[in-house]
Every structure is written in C-alpha cells, then in structure tokens.
Design brief:
The complex is a heterotrimer of chains A (142), B (79) and C (666).
Chain A lengths: L2 H26 L17 H20 L4 H36 L4 H6 L3 H23 L1
Helix pairs in contact in A: 1-2, 1-3, 1-5, 2-3, 3-5
Chain B lengths: L3 E2 L8 E7 L3 H9 L7 E7 L3 E6 L2 E6 H5 L1 E5 L5
Antiparallel strand pairs in B: 1-6, 2-3, 2-6, 3-4, 4-5
Chain C lengths: L4 E7 L5 H9 L3 E5 L6 E9 L2 E7 L11 H12 L4 E7 L3 H12 L5 E6 L1 H6 L3 E2 L1 H8 L3 E3 L8 H14 L11 H15 L2 H6 L2 H9 L3 H7 L5 H8 L4 H23 E2 L7 H9 L5 H41 L3 H19 L2 H17 L1 H16 L6 H7 L3 H6 L7 H10 L9 H12 L3 H25 L10 E4 L7 H35 L12 H13 L6 H12 L3 H9 L6 H10 L5 H13 L4 H11 L2 H30 L3
Parallel strand pairs in C: 1-4, 1-5, 5-6, 6-8
Antiparallel strand pairs in C: 2-3, 3-4, 7-9
Helix pairs in contact in C: 3-12, 5-12, 7-9, 7-11, 14-15, 14-16, 15-23, 16-23, 21-22, 21-27, 21-28, 22-28, 23-26, 24-25, 25-26, 28-30, 29-30
The chains are: A mainly alpha (142), B alpha+beta (79), C alpha/beta (666).
Chain lengths: 142, 79, 666
C-alpha cells in the first residue's frame, strides 16, 4: 500500500471510528438520544464508544504523522487496525457467549441480543482488508 | 564532545554512554544490564516519568531519575 | 544404578526458560519451596538415552550479584548446591547481555552448556550464529533450541549427557588487566592455603569475587583460618572500581568475540520499538491501557456467564438428587444444602476468575504488561508505589491470593510489603456477587453505577492507605524503576495456559478446601441446636449474631448480616451462601433477593454500608494464609486484619450515616 493510500485510509477510518465512538459514548451517557430505529445500528454504550474513539484517535494520529515520519505513520495505522479487529472479535465472542447463556438458561431476550450488535462489529469487518494490507507493509518495513 | 543526561537524548538517535553518576548499587544493576561506559544506547520512547531505552540488544524502562544520572554523548562514534 | 544427572537450569528473565523447562519435563514436575524463603522451587525428571536426568528450574538472574529474593535463590543454588551441569538458557535475539551471565558462570568451574533459545525469532530477523565456531571461540558449547516448538531439545539432552560425562569446565578467554591478575594471583595463593576453602569453589573465582567486593563471599570466608590474610590482601583494594572494570572486561570480551561467529541483519527500527511508539504515546498511552482493561473485564464477564449458568444448573440439579436420594433428612440437608450447595455457589464464579486470569496472562506473556507498568509508573510513583507493583494489583482484581503471589517480582522488600498489604483493597472476584445482589435489590436501575463506584472506592482507599503506610510505618521512597521490556511476541498457547493455570489452581484449591469447610460450618451453626428451624434466630448462628450485634449496630447491621460477615472472613464467597441459609432462601438467588427486599431491617443505606464493609474488611482466610506465607511474618498478617477491619468499620459507619441522611430509610 502506497503512503498516500495508507494515509487517506487511516484518516477515513479515523473519522469513522472516532465519530461512531463519540456518538455511542454520548448515547451511553444519555447526553442525547436518537429515534428508536437507530438502536439497531448504534446501541448506546459508554465503554464500547470509548474504545472506538480511542481506535479512531490512533488512526488519526497515524494519518497526521505520515508526511514527516512514514514508518511511525504505518505503525500507528497498523496498531489501530489490529485493535479494531481484535475488539471486533471480542464483541463477537461476547455476542456468542450471550447467545450460549440464553440457550442454557432459556429466555426471550433475543431482540436485546441482536440489538447489541454495534459498530464495534461491523466497523471491524470494514477494517479487515486494511489490516491485511497494512500488516504486510509493516512487516516489510522492518 | 558534549555530555548530556540520557533524558535529553533525542528519541531515535543513537548515543554512547560516557559516565554513570549513581550510587554503587544502582550502578551495579545498570552495569549488569549492559548500561556501562562505551555502550551504545538509544532512547525508544520518552514518557512523563520514565523512558524506554535500547541497550545491549534489550529494551528497558527507566525512571527519569535514573536516566538523569546516565551521561551520554550523541552519535555512536566510540570514545 | 547411577545417580541422575543434575541440571541447574538458569538464565536471564524472559528468555523462555520456563517454556523450555516445561517442554523438557512435561508433566513430571514437582513444585515445592526453597527452604527459608517464599520462592517456589520447581524440579522435574526425565530420561534420555537411558540416562536419568533431574532438572532444577531456577529463578531468572541477570548476574551473580543478587538484588531480589528470587535472584538470591538462584545464586545460592549455583554456588552452594552441586549440580553436575549448568544449562543456561540464552535469548538468541539478545546474545550480548545474556552472555554477560555466561562469562560469570564460566568461572564457577562447573560444566556449562548454553541453550540458545528462541532461535526461530532470531533467524526470522536475519541473524545467523555459527554454533560450532562459537563453542571453539568462547570455550563453551551451545545448542540451538526453540522452546515453544520443542526443536533442539533432543540435541540439547545429547550434549547434556556428553558434557556432564566429560566433566570439563568451560574456558572463556578473558584477559584481566595485568594489575588485576597480580591481585588475583596473590589472593589465590592465600586461599589455597585453606584446602576446605579451595575445594568449595575454584580459588580463582573466589579471588575475583572478593576483589569485586562480593559480600556473601566475604561472609562465607569469615570462618576460615586464612581470613585475616585475605583481609590483608584486600586492604586498599577499590572494590567498586574493580566491579566496573571487570564488568567492562566481560562486555568487551563479548564484543570482541561475538561478531566473529554471529551476524545480525542491519535493522532499522525493530517492530517492537515501532509498536512501543504507538502504545506508549504521550497522550494515548493511558487511554489505550484503559481500553485494554475494559476489554478484558467485558470479555470475562460475558464469556463466563454461560459457564456460570451451566454450573448453577448442574449443582442445583445435583443438590436435589442428593437430597432426594438420602433418606435421613438431617444428612440430606448436610450434604445437599451444606456441601453441594455451598461448593456450587462458589464454583459458579470459577469460570470468571479463570477467564480473567487467562486474559491477564495473555497480556503479560505478549509483553504488553511491561509497557503498561511503564505507562502507569508515573501514576504509581505519585502514590508512592513502584511501577512494578502495578501488575500484582491488577491480578488482585481477579483474586487477591494470586495478586499477592504476583508481588514476588518486586525487589525492594518494603515496596513488596506495601503491595501485599494493599492488595486486599482491590475488590476481588469473590466480592462481586455480594455487590451485584445488594446493588440489584436496593438500587435497581443504578446498580451498575453503585458497583463501579465501589471498585473506585477500593482503589481510592488503597491510594490513601499507601500514603499512610509510607508516611508512618514503611517509609522510604520506592526503589528506582528499571524494568526490562521484552520484545512483543505472540504468546504460545501452552505457556499462557500453564501460566493461567498456576494462578487459578490456587483459587480452585481454595474453593474446594476452605470454602467447603466454611459452608459446612455455616450449615452446622444454622442447624443446631437440634430441632431448631434451619437458620433461624434460635440456632447457634442466630445466637452468635445477636451477641455481636452491638458491635456493628452503628453500621446498621442486624444479626443475620453479622453472621454472614463472620462467615465471609473464611471466604468472601460464603457471604451469599450464608445469607441464603439465614433467610431460608436456600440457593435460589431470586428468593434471596426477595427475602432481602422484604426484610425491614435492611434498606438502601444499610445495603451501601454493608457493601463498603465487605469491600474493605479483612482479607479472606486464603488471602491471609498467602500473606503469612509471602511475608513470613505473623505481625504483618495480623496487621492486615486489624487494618482492614478498622478502615472498614469507620468507612461503613460514615457511609451509613450519610446514607441515612441522603437516602432516608430505616
């Protein structure tokens, strides 16, 4: 991945994660509310939002240092991508564990479970190709 | 050949240890790890209260207090 | 039959020594204690080519000068106990510093063999070591190993057998400066006059250590007839100067010889360093760390839920079966409610402890935890704690017992003591169910917030206590912070699982041992005198509770709560179980919640004060036993009890009174 591409991708992902993160956290703190339908896309969660915001900050930092220090820029982008995928995986595990619990204990909280699928999961899927591409570059650089 | 404490060494640039102005025990511990005069040293990351340095092939986190007692010269030309 | 070959397995910390040890000895390990100290002694056995071999795993050391208890143990073993051969595990990516120890070990006169471990990582980086020429040049043999995959182990064992049979000590070509050689010669002559002394260690080695001012060696000479002569030789010798000079000599010898057999790929910035730049970022470092912690706790609670539910169901069913199968109602109750119910209520939490410790182990083995300690160091320092006490505190959130044991890596005894004493304030996994129950009943919607603030309170109290202890009983600024940052690596599944297992097995032992007994005692006190209603006021439990009531009345507690707290002393998990017994709710959490809500004596302020008390009062029995073991002192253990109780009482009181005013209620 060439530097310009990496930089733009990092900036874009930074804005995405940062944006979603801040909004989710804000919802979690009940600073503002969204119409019901949004709950499926952006479930309120202070801590999930926080993590996404941190990842966003890392992407943005990577984008920022690119012109002056390429290898650090790649590093930030790579680490951010790793964290994003890892957190996505973690969210998936949490979801599956919740489903398993439901299965064992019995109960009708399926809608709540589905609702909890948030940006942590789908944004992670988005980051996957980036992770693979930047990962290759990261390993080449060093 | 200017001497400066380790805390002032720019991260990323190699330096060479010249002197360690510390008590015996501390000096001993640093020596064992490879932090002794003539050793090549680089600062990896500098935080608020501590820094990470690379010396003798390993990385160590040192408190600023200790780092301030290690005098280095910039550049990696041997003495 | 010949005696087994005895290997002393030694090496720097973080070189994969434990992985190698596990790979060599497999399941045949014995864990005990080194006499007189609280350090674990691990030994194992194996057979190779028909030869019996015993391996003793020694704590990691950087040199033969010991700064912590761990290091002293290794040193003492190497110097005093006879091993047939020393195998030093060396990090292939970091030969320079590792070989420093080798040069010291070589002078001991015992056959020495190097296991150049993590060779795969070195080769990936483009490093190349000529093992054959290395042996010739350095005067000691080296074998290529990869502990995580088992590569090189057979060759290593072949060499072990060969080298120990040959019995030839290594001969590293080190040229001491002329004047030092003269001093050495002089001392050697004196030492050789005492045959017993000369036999203990090679005289040359003793001479060099004496010139460096090694206090232990000096002390060990004291009884010898040549001691005065030795002192005479040492008069006017600048030990500090020598120590520096000899260290310099070792490193320059290594710098001289190593490049002839070892090539490294020209590396710009290593990936580890790059990652470090990100992870220790000035502003994002702490947020990243907090994100990790949040992720860890989230995963723990979510992933353990299905297991917990499963265990709850299984034990509920088991309890019923048992009760149905035993005719005698008395015995049925004992086994059904007391034993099965009690143990079940504890085992429910085992999955969460295991998972939390697993996550923490992964973070530690990957190398991240060292960075976290670095990032948090400034904060820790402001509190008066060394950065290294950070990880034990973190582990304490899972289980105080494991947290206290993790303090072994702290060198300074005072720092270590403080870390141990403060650990019980880290709200352990066992207290959480109590919080969840009471917060859920009395604070419903705000339950989560209440629990969060309880955790925070624990931390705040720990900080204040640290300042208090520093100012009064344990003064002294914490030891300078030097901590090795191992390169990042993907932790091997086996090592991490073993790591997690060693920590959580303590918890498991506690669960089946202490808690079982505790549950039985609860049951006993609730069932007697005979004929009394189970868990009522007339039972022994009730009587004791009433007797102690006056002591805790200012805190708003009644006799049931008092009894539950006393049982909680055994193990915090028992609090819920005993409350279940005392309220007649059995093991049904729903019924217990209902009973609590209905009890007029309980209200929101009381609940709050109770939770604060549970958070802070004495460590549980298992933790106390661990404190005793790790500090070796009854005094500090007792202090821990009194300290905890006093703080708990005072804060509970304050919380209760303020709670009454703010929240109203009984």
């Amino acid at each position: 991945m060439r530097s310009v591409t990496t930089r733009s991708v990092a900036a874009l992902l930074g804005v995405l994660f940062g944006g979603f993160g801040v909004v989710q956290a804000g919802l979690g703190l009940a600073l503002f509310t969204l119409p019901e339908a949004w709950a499926f896309v952006l479930p309120p969660s202070l801590l999930d939002g926080y993590v996404l915001a941190v990842i966003g900050a890392l992407f943005l930092t990577g984008a920022r240092v690119f012109p002056s220090d390429e290898e650090t820029g790649v590093a930030y982008t790579y680490v951010a991508a790793v964290f994003a995928c890892a957190y996505g995986l973690l969210s998936l595990l949490v979801l599956l564990a919740g489903a398993a619990d439901l299965l064992i204990a019995g109960g009708e909280e399926v809608p709540a479970l589905v609702e909890s699928i948030g940006p942590a999961l789908y944004l992670a899927v988005l980051v996957l190709p980036t992770y693979l591409a930047v990962g290759k570059r990261f390993r080449q650089e060093v | 050949m200017a001497l400066a404490p380790l805390t002032l060494l720019t991260p990323g640039t190699p330096g060479r240890v010249r002197e360690i102005r510390a008590g015996d025990e501390l000096k001993g511990r640093l020596t064992v790890l490879g932090l002794l005069p003539q050793a090549e040293i680089t600062v990896v990351s500098a935080g608020h209260g501590s820094l990470i340095v690379s010396v003798a092939g390993s990385r160590y986190a040192l408190s600023r207090g200790i780092a301030a007692q290690v005098l280095v010269s910039e550049g990696d030309r041997p003495a | 039959m010949t005696a087994p070959i005895r290997i002393g397995l030694v090496g720097n910390p973080n070189v994969g020594k434990t992985t190698l040890f596990n790979a060599l000895t497999g399941a045949r390990q014995h864990v005990g204690n080194w006499p007189g100290v609280t350090v674990e002694r691990k030994s194992g056995e194996l057979t190779h080519q028909g030869v019996a071999i015993e391996v003793i795993d020694l704590p990691g050391i950087y040199s033969l000068t010991a700064y912590s208890v761990d290091e002293q143990v290794s040193r003492d073993f190497l110097l005093d106990e006879r091993s047939d051969i020393i195998v030093q595990v060396v990090d292939a990516t970091n030969l320079e510093r590792n070989l420093y120890l080798s040069t010291q070990l070589a002078e001991l006169g015992v056959p020495l063999l190097l296991a150049v471990n993590m060779a795969d990582l070195a080769e990936e980086q483009g490093d190349c070591l000529d093992y054959g020429r290395f042996a010739g040049l350095f005067g000691l043999p080296a074998v290529r190993t990869v502990g995580s995959t088992g590569e090189g182990l057979a060759e290593l064992l072949d060499e072990v057998v060969a080298v120990s049979r040959a019995g030839r000590p290594p001969r590293v070509p080190m040229e001491y400066p002329a004047e030092s050689e003269a001093a050495i010669a002089g001392l050697v002559a004196v030492i050789e006059r005492d045959p017993a002394l000369a036999r203990r260690h090679p005289p040359r080695w003793t001479a060099v250590r004496l010139l460096e001012g090694d206090e232990h060696v000096l002390a060990s000479i004291a009884g010898s007839p040549v001691a005065p002569a030795v002192k005479e030789q040492l008069a006017g010798v600048d030990a500090i100067e020598n120590e520096a000079r000899f260290a310099d000599l070792r490193y320059s010898t290594i710098a001289d010889l190593l490049p002839r057999v070892h090539t490294t790929c020209a590396r710009r910035t290593s990936p580890s360093d790059l990652i470090d730049r990100v992870v220790t970022d000035r502003y994002l470092g702490i947020p990243i760390f907090l994100a990790f912690m949040w992720g860890a706790f989230e995963l723990t609670f979510a992933a353990s839920a299905p297991f917990g539910t499963l265990i709850e169901l299984v034990f509920g069913w088991l309890g019923e079966q048992v009760r149905g199968a035993i005719a005698d109602p008395w015995l049925a109750s004992l086994v059904g409610d007391g034993a099965v119910g009690g143990v079940g209520s504890v085992l429910v939490f085992v999955p969460s402890i295991f998972i939390l410790l697993l996550v923490l182990s992964v973070l530690e083995d990957s190398g991240y935890m060292a960075r976290a300690a670095f990032i948090m160091d400034r904060l820790m320092h402001a509190i008066g704690l060394p950065g290294k006490s950070f990880i034990p505190m973190l582990v304490g959130f899972g289980c105080n017992v494991a947290g206290i044991m993790a303090t072994r890596t702290i060198e300074d005894p005072k720092d270590r003591l403080i870390a141990i004493l403060l650990n019980p304030f880290m709200s352990c996994g066992a207290r959480l169910p109590v919080f969840v129950l009471f917060a859920g009943v009395f604070f419903t919607a705000h339950a989560g917030t209440v629990v969060f603030f309880l955790y925070v309170l624990g931390i705040v109290v720990a900080i204040v206590a640290a300042k208090l202890l520093r100012a009064t009983v344990l003064p002294g600024s914490s030891a300078p912070f030097i901590m090795e940052m191992p390169p990042y690596r993907l932790p091997s599944a086996r090592t991490t699982l073993l790591h997690m297992w060693s920590r959580s097995s303590m918890y498991l032992k506690k669960a089946t041992g202490v808690i079982l007994i505790g549950s039985l005692v609860v049951w006993f006190l609730a069932s007697f005198p005979v004929g009394v209603e189970y868990g009522s006021e007339a039972s022994l439990a009730g009587l004791i509770g009433h007797a102690l009531e006056p002591l805790v009345a200012p805190l708003g507690f009644d006799w049931r709560v008092t009894i539950a707290l006393i049982f909680g002393f055994v193990a915090k998990e028992v609090v819920i179980g005993s409350l279940g017994v005392l309220y007649g709710a059995g093991n049904d959490p729903g019924a217990l919640a209902g009973a609590l809500a209905a009890d007029g004596a309980l209200s929101a302020p009381v609940a709050l004060s109770l939770m604060v008390f549970v958070l802070l009062y004495t460590p549980c029995l298992a933790a106390l036993a661990t404190i005793r073991k790790e500090t070796g002192s009854w005094r500090w253990t007792g202090f821990s009890v009194v300290f905890g109780l006093s703080i708990a009482w005072v804060l509970s009181f304050v919380v209760y009174r303020i709670g009454r005013i703010v929240l109203g209620g009984a």
